[in-house]
């Protein structure tokens, strides 16, 4: 049996009920998804029958979530990807319908993003997707087309289509061709893709970043628990402020500092301090995500285009002979560009915090954190250099105008 420990009870019940034999269960587990999801997606087990088996295996009550549901400030994309739907509060706890209530990673992400303790309930995949307002194909018969992002040894990543009887067979065929699959599925992103998409959406950018960061050669599965918490959504403001204050102080023991922080709910402290390496990785990833957010904002900022317009206005005004106005316009453009540069330097500082925070955990986790941090720094420096170049050019124009005026 190749299923993880927290899925053993479900595997036994599925076998006892005659819903799936152990060969089918092992094949489903080999694809990397929870078996409760993989067996339904492949059409091997009917969705309601699976929900009933899951309820028995986990001891969670079987529910039918109403549509639409309130997401409790948790990213809807995360809920749809992890097949979970918040149902509301009950005695101070967030009740969550889940395709697999034993999925502790998803539950941890929900607790972290909502700031509330959570209690899982069992529900069918179809019921959860209807409640969230999403729909996906449920069956994948023999000869289905599986889309996979792959990378060859020393090569760039690319997306190809493989025709196979199931996900495991698709993975085996890729390995036989000497390709490393980063994802295999009907458009469902892998962990590596989620990390990459957070930085640089788009196929070409993904391929470039895979190569730069080296995720294809890292043990990305080690980050599942930490990433689930980060991807669930932004931290509630009070928690984010508390963690920001701790990281800004640069304590030698960030995990201990968080444990002693009175501004955090007990559930958050429990998640962050449950294991030192996971806690450190959570801080590292959260800080790296902050750097990414700063870059994302800077990339979409109208500041640099505005600086270009100012430069154009300078040229027009110069020819018109309005030297004083041109000089003011050029200076204003330079200030705009320098403000962008300052924001990018803040992104570099956040990347520094990510590197500082990744002080514990095994070498593979530290390696992934370090690669992400270096990618953030590289992108920030490149954009910062562009902003500086624009500022210098505008200052030069302003100086020339001033002299001629």
UniProtKB/TrEMBL annotation:
InterPro entries, A to Z: T2SS_E_N_sf, T2SS_GspE_N
Membrane spanning residue stretches: 309-336, 380-403
Domain Type II secretion system protein GspE N-terminal: 68-132
Keyword annotations: Membrane, Transmembrane, Transmembrane helix
Presence of the UniProt keyword Membrane in the record: yes
Top-rank taxon, per record: Bacteria
Cross-referenced Pfam families: MshEN
The UniProt record lists the keyword Transmembrane: yes
Name of the protein: Type II secretion system protein GspE N-terminal domain-containing protein
């Amino acid at each position: 049996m190749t299923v993880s420990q927290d899925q053993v009870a479900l595997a036994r019940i599925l076998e006892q009920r005659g819903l799936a034999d152990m060969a089918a269960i092992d094949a489903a587990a080999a694809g990397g998804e929870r078996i409760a999801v993989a067996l339904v997606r492949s059409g091997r087990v009917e969705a309601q029958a699976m929900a009933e088996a899951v309820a028995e295996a986990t001891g969670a009550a079987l529910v039918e979530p109403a549509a639409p549901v309130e997401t409790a400030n948790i990213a809807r994309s995360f809920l749809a990807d992890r097949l979970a739907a918040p149902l509301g509060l009950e005695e101070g706890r967030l009740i969550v319908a889940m395709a697999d209530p034993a999925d502790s990673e998803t539950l941890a992400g929900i607790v972290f993003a909502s700031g509330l303790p959570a209690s899982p309930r069992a529900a069918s995949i179809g019921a959860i997707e209807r409640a969230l307002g999403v729909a996906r194909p449920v069956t994948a018969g023999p000869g289905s087309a599986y889309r996979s992002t792959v990378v060859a040894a020393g090569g760039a990543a690319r997306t190809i289509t493989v025709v196979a009887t199931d996900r495991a067979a698709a993975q085996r065929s890729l390995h036989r061709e000497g390709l490393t699959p980063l994802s295999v599925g009907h458009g469902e992103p892998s962990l590596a893709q989620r990390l990459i998409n957070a930085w640089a959406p788009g196929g070409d950018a993904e391929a470039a970043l895979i190569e730069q960061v080296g995720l294809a050669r890292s043990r990305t599965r080690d980050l599942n628990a930490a990433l689930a918490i980060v991807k669930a959504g932004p931290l509630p403001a009070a928690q984010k402020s508390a963690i920001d204050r701790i990281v800004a102080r640069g304590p030698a023991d960030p995990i201990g500092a968080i444990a002693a922080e009175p501004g955090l709910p007990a559930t958050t402290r429990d998640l962050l301090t449950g294991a030192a390496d996971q806690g450190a990785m959570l801080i590292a990833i959260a800080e790296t995500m902050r750097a990414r957010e700063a870059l994302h904002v800077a990339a979409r900022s109208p500041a640099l285009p505005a600086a270009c317009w100012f430069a154009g206005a300078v040229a027009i005004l110069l020819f018109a002979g309005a030297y004083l106005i041109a000089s003011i316009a050029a200076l204003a453009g330079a200030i705009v560009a320098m403000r962008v540069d300052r924001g990018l330097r803040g992104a570099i500082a956040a990347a520094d915090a990510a590197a500082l925070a990744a002080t514990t955990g095994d070498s593979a986790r530290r390696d992934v954190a370090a690669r992400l941090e270096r990618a953030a720094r590289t992108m920030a420096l490149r954009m910062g250099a562009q902003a500086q170049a624009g500022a210098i050019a505008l200052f030069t124009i302003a100086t020339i105008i001033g002299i001629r005026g």
